[in-house]
């Protein structure tokens, strides 16, 4: 039996290192968000986006159409001026927002916590 090609071992090692790096990065971001203080700002909803995420390859879609998963994002601009902030939201939170709404945005680090519209 022949030896496993060196190229295959190198490719496998690169995949393992990349996956490990991404896992550690996600865990660190979650820990940073958990440790961050809850901040609140008066903002205006400046933009909403929903994007279909596809978990199938193009050939699989030709055979059977994919059930699409959606990613929801909203951007908020501080009323007092400053940089626009964009957060990922779940579907329920996303559909409660309307572009132009004013209110108080609550967030921890890069994690959206809530939006309370102004009366």
UniProtKB/TrEMBL annotation:
The lineage's top-level taxon is Bacteria
Q: Which residue windows are transmembrane per the record?
A: 6-24
Q: Which UniProt keywords apply?
A: Membrane, Transmembrane, Transmembrane helix
- Chain residue ranges for the region called Disordered: 50-69
Q: Which InterPro entries match?
A: DUF2500
**What's this protein's name?**
DUF2500 domain-containing protein
Native source organism of the sequence = Leclercia barmai
């Amino acid at each position: 039996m022949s030896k496993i090609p060196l190229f295959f071992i190198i490719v496998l090692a690169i995949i393992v290192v990349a996956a490990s790096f991404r896992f550690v990065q996600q865990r660190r971001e979650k820990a940073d968000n958990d440790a961050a203080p809850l901040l609140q700002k008066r903002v205006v909803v400046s933009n909403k986006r929903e994007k279909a995420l596809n978990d199938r390859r193009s050939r699989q879609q030709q055979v059977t159409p994919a059930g699409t998963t959606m990613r929801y994002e909203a951007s908020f601009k501080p009323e007092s001026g400053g940089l626009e902030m964009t957060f990922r939201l779940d579907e329920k939170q996303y559909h409660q927002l309307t572009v132009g709404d004013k209110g108080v945005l609550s967030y921890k680090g890069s994690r959206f916590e809530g939006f309370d519209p102004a009366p």
